[in-house]
Design a protein that fits this description.
8-stranded mixed sheet; alpha+beta; GIY-YIG endonuclease; about 45% helix; 5-stranded mixed sheet; 20 helices; 5 domains; 19 strands
C-alpha cells in the first residue's frame, strides 16, 4: 500500500459513487461502483486479496472517487467511465454484434428479409435470433411454404418462382389488398408459433398428391414438413404465455464466469448465447454489469427473468424493462435451463480452450516450473464416493499432453476406511505402481493428484515405500474450490496465473480424471440410494434434492458452488444451509 493510499483511505466518503484505481503513471486501471464508497474501496487495501484482485491492488498507486446521488447514477457513471478509459482490469463482453431479426413487410405484397434492428415500422419483426443460421432457415422455409415475393426489387417479367407457384407475381399481377393481408396474417401466425393450421394443410395436400399417385409432389411436401419440424425443434420450447423474455443463468469456476441467455420471443425459444469472462471481484456485481453491457447492443424484451434477488434489484433501476425474480414454479425451470447451459458452456470452454497450443512446449514449461525433466507421460488420480458409499478410484494417462484412454484404470476401494480419501489414495497408488514394478513396466514422468497437500503426502508415502523415484504433485484449489496451480510435498504452491495455456492444459487433465472417476462411481452406486449429504437439510425436500443432484454430479462440484449459484435452484436460505453442510463435511 502506497503512502498516497494510506492517507486517502480515512477520507473516503460513505456515500454511493464510483472509484477509479490508478497506477504510478496516473493511468486508470480499474473502475468500480459502490453503495458505500468507504466500505468498498477500503476493503481492497485492508483485507488480504488473492488472484486478479491482488494483482490489481499491487499496481494501485492512488485512487479517485466520484460521489453520486443514487446507486442508479453510480451504475450509469461506472459504465460511462469504463467506456472512456477501457481499464485493463475491467471485464467487458467481447461480442458486440446485433442479433438478426426476420422482418415481414406489412403493406402491399408481403416480403421477408433479415434485419439487424427492429426500427422500421413498415415491418413486423420476429426475433432476435442468437443463432443467425436459424433465422435464415426460417426465411427459406417461409418462402417455400408461402407465395411471398422473393425479389428485392420487382422486375418487369415474372421469374421462375412465379412459374413454380411460389410467388403471386406482383411484377405482372395486381394483387388485391385482401389477398396480401391474408398472406401477411398467415406468415405472422406461423412466426408466432401457431403452426397447426399450416401443418395440417400441408399434410392434407401430401395425402391428396399420394392418392393421385403424384409421388414427386408428395415427396416435395414431405421435405417441407420435415423442414418445419427441424426448425421448430431448433427453436426448442414454447411457453403458453407468449411473453417475450430473456432468461439469464450464470455460474463460476476456477476464476472464470459464465453467463447464458435464453432468448424467448412471443413464448418461443429462439436460441442461446453464452459468454465466458474472467471472474473479478464480487460475482453478483460483475453479472449485473455484464447484463447492462449486453443490452447496449441487444434489444430489450418485455421481461428479464433471473433467480438472483440482488442482481434483480441492481438492474431494475437501470433497465427500463420488467425484471422478474423467481424462486419456484414453471418459470424457475427456465432459469434452471439457463443455468445448466451456463455450466455446460463453461465446462466446454475449459475442455476446448487453447487446443491449438503446442503441448510439448507447455510440458517443457511445466518441467521447468517444478524443476523436473519434461513430463511427457503424466498419470492423474482421483477418488469418488458419497459418504463412503460405493467408493472408487480412477487413473487417467496423458502422453504428450493428450489422453491415452487404453491406459486408463479403474479401482474398487477395498480398504476398511472407505471414507478416508488419503487411505483410498494410498491403496489405489500402491496397487498401481507395485504392479508396474513387479512387471518391470515403464513408469510415468509425473504423478498428479486431484487434491491438496494430504493427497500429495499419501502419494509420496507410497512412492517412497516402493522405492521409486517419481515426482508427485497435487492440483491445488483455493478456499473457493478453484484450481489455482500445483502444490508440492512441502506445501509450496506453484501458481499458474501467469500462464493461461499451461493452466488450461492441466485443468483439462483434471476434468478428465474427475469425469472418469464420477462415471465409474455412478456405474457402481446403488440407484436406490436414499441417504445422502442432502438429507435433513431444512427446506430441501425430495424435489429440490433431485434438482441439486441433476446439476451437481458429485460432492466436489457441489462444494465449488457458491451460495449465489445455488440460489438459482433453491431459495437463498436453503442455499446457505446446503453450502454450510457440504463444506463442513470435508
Amino acid at each position: 500500500m502506497t503512502e498516497k493510499v494510506k492517507i486517502a483511505i480515512p477520507l473516503i466518503p460513505k456515500r454511493p459513487g464510483c472509484y477509479l484505481m490508478k497506477d504510478k503513471d496516473d493511468k486508470v486501471i480499474y473502475v468500480g461502483k459502490a453503495k458505500n464508497l468507504y466500505n468498498r474501496v477500503s476493503q481492497y487495501f485492508l483485507r488480504p486479496q488473492v488472484g486478479k484482485v491482488q494483482a490489481m491492488v499491487s499496481h494501485v498507486d492512488h485512487f479517485e472517487t466520484i460521489i453520486t446521488k443514487t446507486d442508479k447514477e453510480a451504475f450509469i457513471l461506472e459504465h460511462n467511465l469504463i467506456h472512456e478509459y477501457y481499464p485493463r482490469y475491467n471485464i467487458l463482453l467481447k461480442d458486440g454484434k446485433h442479433y438478426p431479426y426476420i422482418a415481414l413487410k406489412k403493406k402491399n405484397d408481403p416480403y421477408l428479409k433479415i434485419a439487424r434492428n427492429d426500427k422500421d415500422r413498415n415491418y413486423y419483426y420476429f426475433g432476435p435470433f442468437p443463432t443467425s443460421s436459424y433465422a435464415y432457415k426460417v426465411i427459406d422455409l417461409l418462402n417455400k411454404i408461402f407465395p411471398t415475393r422473393k425479389c428485392r426489387n420487382i422486375p418487369n417479367t415474372p421469374c421462375l418462382y412465379y412459374h413454380m407457384g411460389m410467388c403471386l407475381g406482383p411484377c405482372i399481377n395486381r394483387i388485391d389488398e385482401k389477398t396480401n393481408d391474408e398472406l401477411f396474417e398467415n406468415i405472422k401466425t406461423f412466426l408466432e408459433g401457431r403452426n397447426d393450421k399450416v401443418i395440417k394443410e400441408l399434410k392434407d395436400k401430401m395425402l391428396e398428391a399420394s392418392e393421385k399417385q403424384e409421388y414427386e409432389k408428395a415427396q416435395d411436401i414431405k421435405v417441407t414438413l420435415d423442414a418445419i419440424e427441424h426448425v421448430l425443434d431448433k427453436q426448442g420450447v414454447e411457453n403458453k404465455d407468449h411473453v417475450s423474455r430473456d432468461v439469464f443463468g450464470f455460474t463460476s469456476r476456477d476464476g472464470y464466469l459464465s453467463i447464458a441467455i435464453l432468448t424467448y420471443r412471443r413464448g418461443i425459444l429462439l436460441g442461446k448465447e453464452a459468454y465466458i469472462v474472467e471472474e473479478f471481484g464480487d460475482i453478483n456485481e460483475q453479472v449485473s454489469t455484464l447484463i447492462f453491457q449486453y443490452y447496449e447492443t441487444h434489444s430489450k424484451p418485455s421481461e428479464i427473468l433471473l433467480n438472483s434477488e440482488y442482481i434483480a434489484k441492481e438492474i431494475a433501476e437501470i433497465l427500463d424493462v420488467k425484471i422478474n425474480f423467481v424462486s419456484k414454479g414453471n418459470l424457475m425451470e427456465l432459469v434452471e435451463m439457463a443455468s445448466l447451459n451456463a455450466r455446460q458452456s463453461l465446462d466446454s470452454h475449459f475442455m476446448s480452450a487453447r487446443l491449438s497450443d503446442d503441448n510439448n512446449a507447455l510440458l517443457e514449461e511445466l518441467g521447468r516450473r517444478i524443476n523436473i525433466d519434461t513430463p511427457y507421460r503424466i498419470e492423474l488420480f482421483d477418488n469418488s464416493h458419497i459418504q463412503g458409499d460405493s467408493p472408487v478410484g480412477a487413473m487417467v494417462v496423458f502422453v504428450n499432453g493428450e489422453p491415452l484412454k487404453k491406459m486408463y484404470r479403474k479401482f474398487n476401494i477395498e480398504g476398511k476406511e472407505k471414507r478416508d480419501d488419503y487411505a483410498s489414495m494410498k491403496e489405489v497408488m500402491r496397487r498401481r505402481y507395485s504392479r508396474l514394478k513387479e512387471n518391470n513396466e515403464s513408469m510415468p514422468d509425473l504423478i498428479l493428484t486431484d487434491g491438496g497437500l494430504g493427497q500429495v503426502h499419501a502419494g509420496v508415502e507410497v512412492i517412497d515405500e516402493l522405492e521409486l523415484s517419481i515426482p508427485v504433485y497435487g492440483l491445488f484449489k483455493n478456499d473457493k474450490h478453484q484450481t489455482k496451480g500445483l502444490i508440492d510435498k512441502d506445501g509450496n504452491v506453484i501458481s499458474l496465473d501467469d500462464n493461461k495455456p499451461l493452466f488450461f492444459l492441466l485443468v483439462r487433465m483434471q476434468d478428465e480424471v474427475h469425469r472418469f472417476a464420477i462415471s465409474f462411481h455412478h456405474q457402481k452406486r446403488n440407484k436406490n440410494l436414499t441417504k445422502s449429504i442432502l438429507d435433513d437439510i431444512e427446506g430441501l425436500g425430495a424435489k429440490r434434492q433431485q434438482i441439486i443432484r441433476d446439476h451437481y454430479l458429485d460432492i466436489d462440484e457441489l462444494r465449488r458452488a457458491t451460495v449465489e449459484e445455488l440460489s438459482q435452484y433453491v431459495p437463498e436460505e436453503v442455499a446457505v444451509r446446503i453450502h454450510q453442510k457440504v463444506n463442513s463435511s470435508k
